[in-house]
């Protein structure tokens, strides 16, 4: 099969592209705004792999690539809390316009599409576990924090509209805090940020009071779940949570990272207003209900938080060593 992966030089996209390349031809499209050529450098020259450094907003190029593909995995999006807060226009336009272009062009040729959404769409829901059929509760529009969730909700509405009206084969995947090698803390991702701080002896900075809880998913689990969904005809026209199973507060996470890496870094607390912007709102909980995907594919997470921390730490150590070599010289 020929598969187009938009955002394929990003953290998750590159892992998907790497795995798919074992059995399929893979084409990656990425503008490197949040992705990196380093994520796919090891794939260059592999049989069946090609890539384009361009934006998903380039309609002519996207039309050509979709015409040549049998399946589109649409991951290209603005990601990370910091980027969302600092660049709301880019967030909204990239997420909505990009998805609109992909769906419109795919519908012309009836090419199957997987739209990647996020647990952010659940917003401030008070449900114990977030179910795909549950209500989505966002804050007010003057709180920029919610623009990302709103844009991804529009993506989902549009994808399901194309499925209903245009009979376009569409599947929606809601990812819950996917973490692993190749992810950086540049845009606010908490685990790689904590790990880097712990490895370098910097203070481990917890934003807010640290009582907010998250459920982290190893990228290997996420990729496995996605590949299983691709094999299931029953996934078409449906939404699926893909996540981990262990809920932990950010405060506890900071201390788990410190302990796992035997770091001397102090844990410090930074108010949201200082970390992001005045009046910033956060989701208090993110715990996925995984019954739907488990029933269809048998998915259950294999990797725990300890695995995630250690794998991220190994990757971060390599990055730090490479940086030291590059900037410090051979004798450093």
What portion of the residues fall into strands of 2 or more residues? 15-25%
CATH homologous superfamily label of one domain: NAD(P)-binding Rossmann-like Domain
The CATH architecture classification of one domain is 3-Layer(aba) Sandwich
| Strand and helix order | EHEEHEHHEHEEHEEEHEEHEHHH
Distance between termini? 47 Å
CATH topology of one domain: Rossmann fold
Structure overview:
With 332 residues, the protein is an alpha/beta fold. It has a domain at 2-179 and 217-243 and 283-301: NAD(P)-binding Rossmann-like Domain (Rossmann fold), CATH 3.40.50. Helices cover 41% and strands 17% of the residues. It has eleven helices and 13 strands. The protein has helices at 11-20, 59-68, 81-86, 88-109, 147-166, 190-200, 219-230, 250-260, 272-275, 291-297, 305-328; strands at residues 2-6, 25-30, 49-53, 71-74, 112-118, 170-175, 178-179, 204-207, 213-215, 217-218, 239-242, 247-249, 267-270. The strands form four sheets. The chain has a seven-stranded parallel β-sheet, sandwiched between helices. Strand 1 (2-6), helix 1 and strand 2 form a beta-alpha-beta unit. It is globular. The N and C termini lie far apart (47 Å). The mean pLDDT is 92.
């Amino acid at each position: 099969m020929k598969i187009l992966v938009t955002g394929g030089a990003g953290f998750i996209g590159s892992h998907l592209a790497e795995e798919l390349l074992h059995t399929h031809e893979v084409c990656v499209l990425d503008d490197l705004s949040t992705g990196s050529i380093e994520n796919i450098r090891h794939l260059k020259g592999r049989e069946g792999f090609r890539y384009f450094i361009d934006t998903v907003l380039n309609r002519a190029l996207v039309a050509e690539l979709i015409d040549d593909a049998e399946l589109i995995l649409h991951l290209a999006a603005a990601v990370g809390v910091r980027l969302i807060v600092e660049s709301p226009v880019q967030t909204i336009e990239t997420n909505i316009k990009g998805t609109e272009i992909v769906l419109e062009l795919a519908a012309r040729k009836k090419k199957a599409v997987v739209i990647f959404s996020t647990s952010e769409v659940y917003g401030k829901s008070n449900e114990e576990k977030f179910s795909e059929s549950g209500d989505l509760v966002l804050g007010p529009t003057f709180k920029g924090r919610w623009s990302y969730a709103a844009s991804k909700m529009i993506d989902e509405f549009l994808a399901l509209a194309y499925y209903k009206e245009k009979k376009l084969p569409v599947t929606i995947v809601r990812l819950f805090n996917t973490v692993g090698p190749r992810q950086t803390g540049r845009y606010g991702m908490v685990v790689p940020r904590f790990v880097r701080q712990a490895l370098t002896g910097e203070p481990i900075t917890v934003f807010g009071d640290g009582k907010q809880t998250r459920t982290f998913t190893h990228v290997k689990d996420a990729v496995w779940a996605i590949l299983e969904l691709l094999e299931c005809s029953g996934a078409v026209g449906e939404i699926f949570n893909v996540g981990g199973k262990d809920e932990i507060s950010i405060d506890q996470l900071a201390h788990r990272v410190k302990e796992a890496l035997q770091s001397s870094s102090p844990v410090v607390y930074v108010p949201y207003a200082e970390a992001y912007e005045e009046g910033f709102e956060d989701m208090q909980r993110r715990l996925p209900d995984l019954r739907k995907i488990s029933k269809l594919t048998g998915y259950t997470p294999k990797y725990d938080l300890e695995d995630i921390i250690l794998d991220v730490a190994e990757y971060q150590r390599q990055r730090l060593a490479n940086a030291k070599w590059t900037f410090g010289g051979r004798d450093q």
